[in-house]
Structure formats: structure tokens, C-alpha cells
Amino acid sequence: MIRDDLLEAFLIETRDLVARARADLAALDRIATDGAALDSLFRALHTLKGSTALFELAPLTQLLHAAETRLDRSRNAGRLHPEGAQNIEATIDATERWLDVLDAGGEPNDGLVQAARHLAVRLEGEDAPRGASPRFPAAMANGAAQDASGGATALRYTPSPDAYFRGDDPLAILRAVPGLLHVTATAAVAEDPLAYDPFKCTLGFEAVSSAGLDEVRAALRFVADQIEITQLPSQSPAADSALHLRALHVEAARLDALTGLAGELVVAKAALAHEAQRLFGAREGDGVSRDYAVREAALDRIVRGLHAAINGLRLTPLTPLFARFPRQVRELASGLGKSVDFEASGEHVAVDKAIAEGLFEPLLHLLRNAIDHGVEPPDVRQAAGKPQTARISLTAHALGREVILDVMDDGRGIDLGAARRAAVTRGLMDEAAAAALSDHDAARLVFSAGLSTATEVSALSGRGVGLDAVEAAVARLGGRVSLDNRPGRGLRVRLILPAQIVLQKVLVVAVGEERFGVPLDSVQEVHRVQPDELTLVRETPTFVRRDTVIPLVRLADMVGADAVPPEGAAVVLQIATDEDVLGVHVDRIEARVEAPLRPMTGLMQDYPGMVGTIIGVDGQVIAVLDLAELVR
Amino acid sequence: MSIRLDGDLIRLEGDCHVEDAEALVRLVGPAGARAADLSAVRHLHAAVLQVLVSFRVPIAARPNDPFLDTVVSSSLPTFEIAVGS
Questions:
Q1: Which residues have a Cβ under 8 Å from the Cβ of A183 and sit 6 or more positions away?
Q2: A543: number of Cβ within 10 Å
Q3: Which residues contact A600 (CB under 8 A, 6 or more apart)?
Q4: For residue A589, what pLDDT band results from cuts at 50, 70 and 90?
Q5: Which helix (H) or strand (E) holds A232?
């Protein structure tokens, strides 16, 4: 049990560290001499190494150790060479593969172990950069300098081997240094207690103090010959990564439980208000109802505040999600013999946890699509006057309460002619209709189920799984998709998603014994339709309202419920579909509630036509339907 | 007694002097075999710290003394032992 908890914590922490290492590596890719990034990367790998040691993952620990040693040399040299960067990146990739395996409950196989060993050997074989000048302060700043906004003093203290014989206690000497922020002790590694000489000092210290150079020097004046000391330049604090590390990790399930409770509180409060309305309704204006109204308003404010605060807790940056893509893109591209430069930005944008989790598949699908269908082979690109290496970018930015994610490539774009032909071939429409489509609508054909414009089916995508899967996944998260197609020049697919889960007004309807939710904003009107108002048009019952002929479908048929509609007037929800309006016949309307809509998770995610769930007044889980999707 | 064995846990207490290093070496065993509890330590002589670092002794409980904690937490593997059931 302890091991399981430990493993869980380990996986969370190491994923964070991997993401940080990737971010640092990206920073170093831009500026190879970025000392802060180099230090941060070193610390990330160092911590990773330490964590893996707890789990008997020796080959991985050794690999990380080799990478750490390699990076230490880079820190001394003050820069990370491209070859080193490549090997470090390969190390991070390898680490991630190990984590994937562990996460899935598996054991690292021989392939992983061998790969780690080879890489470790490669790292060790890399030549240390020659002629590099040691950069001792940078090597020591080691995370502490960020606490010392006003500059700091770094020192290295190497007591003489006979310090203990002479009666010195180097640790007591160091204790006297004012303003110590950070102290690391190193010592000769020992294995055999019998061979260990406890009286030979092998200790060395590296420390950072917030005190000035002179103060530190004064405190160490008796051991001045054993001290190196340097003033560190004041440095803008790397607050982000520090904050990130100080963040509290809470088990997802607990957060979900809290979210659920807060949501139920909203509903319970609404039910109470409803009850009060019934009790006090007749006593409009008397003192009791006025007092009650005041208190209810206060309760309302608190409940909303609580709900907002908990939703805030659920916000998570896209960083871990985005960090998973560079490797995927690289592997996909090399598998297809294509050359791709991938860039991700905006990973600091925060979204609801459920949304971050639900985005991996659709984004991967889009990236895969861009590499497979969008990006042309290098020779074709060259012939078209484009650089051989294609650019694919993934960007996120927050806009109000929404988050916009763009997947952009500079490939061939959607071939509109091919899209029209494919739509005809697959019987979606006739030639005339296809030809009549605007370019925009023709491009959107890629969202039709099963439509692919690819001339050949590749191993990756284009096996009849169209972008419709992306659109459906995004819709389930409460978002939508738009396209900006530039034939021959590239494609941008934009996902627009809510950043947070918002309270949704839902109409609760019943068919037979079952209850369903329908988002109120999808219902245009509610009609009562008498049986004699119905006429059959092409075997479909229809009725007329305001000169509009509205076809009628039964919700019971749509959801497969076995229910006999009650006698008398039918209750009909008028909804807008893709091209028309539609009447949906329900047995009755039970309530109008305002509740947080929770995106579908787990198995239910793939159930079409469901946008999420709410908790009813009585605590029952109610599925909220996307009626327009359901009638398709 | 400033260094003693409590089950598999090495407890260091009060002021640990230079001569305690020898006693500690006898208790640590192979690297990582036993963890040390430093919660009751007031000061460690450098020679004692050196044993902990050389043999990479995991720290089960960090020192309360802020200075020692700074040194120990960045020089040695630390972990919290689950207490109770």
C-alpha cells in the first residue's frame, strides 16, 4: 500500500520534472548559454535521479546520473553544446518511456533497459568541452540565488584533510556564516565501513549566502586559505519553477469528490430556494420572507464563491500535456520520412483538469494528421519552393473564459477538389451539391465521418477515422473546432474550449421512468402540440408553428427508451439542427436547474450525443444530451 | 549517548562530536541499508556529517535545527517514513 502511494507520488513528481526539463532544454535551444535554464535542467535531472533510486530502476538511475554528470560539465563550461543537448533530450525521452511503462503498471522490458545503457555510455563517451573556463558561481547558485533577489555571495569551502586532527569542526565554522540560503556538502563516496577513516576530512561545501562578500569573508577569516568566494550577480527570480515545485499535489479523485460536493451544494441550495419560494410565496413582502431573502442572497454568494474557488483548484497548466508531444511528433515524422520542426507555446495556459485530460487524443490526432496528410515529402516541398523541413506548431492562449488551441502546419492544406470528390464517392452528396459547396464548407467536409482525402491509407491515420473524431471529442469538452485552410500553403485547426466548467442551465425532461438533461440554450421554444395538429409528411409526423413546418421525433426513440407517451397534448422541445429545426417529443418537463456540467469521463466519453452530466436535486446523476448530435 | 540504533533506524541526538563518527561508521552498514533520524540533533560535527554523506545514509527525519536542515536536505536523500499503520 505504501509502495503504491509512493509510486503514485513518484509518477506525479517525475512527470512534472520531465516537463520542466523539457522547458529548460527548449530555453537552451534558443540560448545555449542560458545559465538559469542550465541550472534548472541540472536540478531537474538530479531530482529525477534521486527519485528513481527509490524504485530500483538502476539502469534509469545510471542513465540520469550520466546525464547529470554531462550537464555538470556544461554548467562549468557555461553552455550546452548541440550534441549534449541531443543526448540530454534522448535521456528525457527515455525517462518518459520508463514512466509510461510504470504508469501502465508494467515492468521495464529489456529493450528499455538496453536503450538506457547505450545512452548512458554515449553520454559518458561524450568529450568534455575543451578549454572551458570553470564557472564556479553558476555551478553553485543551484537554486538558492533565486531566494536572494538582491544579489548573493557564493562560496566553496574545502577543509584540509587533517582538519579533524587539528580540532576543527568545518560545519561549526560554516554555521557562523550569516544569511546562509543554501549549503551542499559532498564527501568521498565510501562503500566499506572497515576501510573508512573517520578522521580524514574529505568533506567539501558549496554554499550561497544572502550576506555581502565582506561579511562572509569575515566569518571565514580563520580558514581563508580553504575558501573560494564570489559575488553572485543579482538575478531575476525563477519564480515560476520554484512555485511549481512548491505546489501541493492532491490526488485527482479527492479533487473530483470536492468538485462533486460543491456542485451538489449549488443544486441543494437551488432546491432550498425553490422550497422557500413555495412556503413564503404567499407571504410576499412580510418580514419573514424579507429576512429569508437577505440570508438566501448571502448563502448564494458563498456557494458561488466556493464553487469558483474549487474550479480554480481544478485549473492545471497545459505544460504536462504539451510536454508529451515533441517526442510523439519526432517519432511520427521520422517514421514517415518527413522532416518536421515542431514548436509548442502557451503551455502555461491553465484549463480545467478534465479538459486537459480530454485534449491529448484530439491534439495528437491533429498533429498526426498534419504530419501524415498535411506535410509533403521533402522532395515535393522543395519542388514547391518550400523549405524541406516543415513547421508544425501547437499554441495555446487564453481569451476571456475560453482557451484557444491552434495546430498549424505549412503543408499542402486540404485539397478542396479531393474533398468534394471523396464526399461524392462516399455518397454524402451528389456532384452538384459538392460543387455548390463554398470552399469553407468543402474544407469542413474533413469533419464528416469516415471522409479522408488521403490518396493512400498510411499506417498512421487515414484509416477511415476522420477528423470527425476530433470534433466530437472537442464538443464533449464543451468546445468547437474551426478551420483556416490555405490550399498549398498549410492548414490551421483551431480548437476553442471553455477554460473552466461553468454553471449550465439545464432543462430536465422525462421519458417514461428516465430523466435526461437538455442544455437550455439549445432549446429554442417549448410547444404543446395537440394530437390533431400533427400531419404526416413523408411518414414523419410534423406540426406547424409560425408558418414553419417542424418535423417531430420522439426522445424515447432517440435514446432507445421503452415508453408509452402520455395521452393528450405532446410536450415538444424545438431545437436547431445543422440545417433546420426539429421538434423533440418528451413526456414531460420536470425542472429547470442550474448546475455545473461535468464533462464525460471514462467509458462514457465515447457515447455520442452526451455532453456531460449534472446532479439532480435528489442527487441522481442526469445525463445531459446534445439533441442536435443525437438526431444525426 | 548521542548515537544509537533503534531497530533499523539510527538515532542521532543532541550534540554529536568528532568521536561519534567512528561509532556511526559501525552502524551504517552497506550504503542505504539503514536510515538516520536527525530530529533530535542539536549539532553534528563535520566528521559525523561526512559519514552520513559518504555512505549516502537516507534521512528518515530531518533535523529541527534550520542550519543543519539546510545542509542535510541538499546533501542527502531524505524521505518520510510512514508512521503508524
A1: A174, A205, A206, A207, B67, B70, B71, B74, B75
A2: 19
A3: A476, A607, A610, A611, A612, A613
A4: confident
A5: strand A227-232
Banded model confidence at residue A276, pLDDT cuts 50, 70, 90 = confident
Look at residue B12 in the predicted model and tell me its pLDDT.
93
**Cβ proximity of A588 and A513 under 8 Å:** no
Closest among B34, B38, B30 to B7, alpha carbons compared:
B34
Burial of residue A540, with CB atoms counted within 10 A of its CB: 0-12 exposed, 13-18 middle, 19 or more buried: exposed
CB-nearest partner of B54 from A50, A53, A196: A196
Q: Which amino acid is located at A470 in the chain?
A: V
Please give the domain boundaries of chain A with CATH numbers for all domains.
5-125 (1.20.120.160), 138-231 (3.30.70), 317-498 (3.30.565.10), 503-630 (2.40.50.180)
What is the distance between the alpha carbons of residues A12 and A532, in angstroms, rounded to a whole number? 63
Q: In what order do the strands lie in the sheet with A610-615?
A: A588-596, A503-511, A514-519, A621-625, A610-615
By the CB < 8 Å criterion, does B33 face chain A? no
Residue A298 CB: number of other CB atoms within 10 A?
Answer: 10
> Could you read off the pLDDT of B51-85 as tens digits, one per residue?
998 888 888 888 888 899 889 887 876 654 433 32
Which ipTM value was assigned to this complex?
A: 0.91
Q: In the Cβ-directed half-sphere of A411, how many Cα atoms lie within 13 Å?
A: 28
Hey, what's the cell of A151?
544579489
Query: By CB neighbour count within 10 A (0-12 exposed, 13-18 middle, 19+ buried), where does A61 fall?
Result: buried
Closest to B9 in 3D by CA, of B37, B50, B51, B31 = B37
Residue type, A483: L
Q: What is the pLDDT of residues A327-340, one digit of tens each?
A: 888 888 988 888 89
C-beta contacts of A233-239 below 8 A and 24+ residues apart? A233/A151, A234/A148, A234/A149, A234/A150, A234/A151, A234/A152, A235/A36, A235/A141, A235/A145, A235/A146, A235/A149, A237/A146, A237/A147, A237/A149, A238/A36, A238/A40, A238/A146, A239/A146
Residues of B in contact with A180 (CB under 8 A): 67, 70
Q: How confident is the model at residue A467 (pLDDT cuts 50, 70, 90)?
A: confident
To the nearest whole Å, the CA of B6 is away from the closest chain A CA by 19
pLDDT in tens, A227-265: 888 877 654 444 333 334 445 667 777 877 887 788 778
Residues 6 or more apart from A130 whose CB is under 8 A from it? none
C-beta atoms of A171 and B18 within 8 A: no
Q: How far apart are CA A87 and CA A93, in angstroms?
A: 10
Dump pLDDT digits (tens) for A528-547: 888 888 888 888 888 888 88
- The sign of the dihedral angle between the CA atoms of A248, A254, A255, A258 is negative
Q: Mean of the pLDDT values across residues A175-190?
A: 86
Task: Check if the beta carbon of residue A340 is closer than 8 Å to that of residue A329.
Answer: yes
Which residues of A, range 162-221, sit inside 8 Å of B by Cβ? 163-164, 168-172, 174-175, 180-191, 193, 196, 198-199, 201-203
Amino acid (1-letter code) at residue A396: A
Distance from the A193 Cα atom to the nearest Cα atom in chain B, whole angstroms: 6
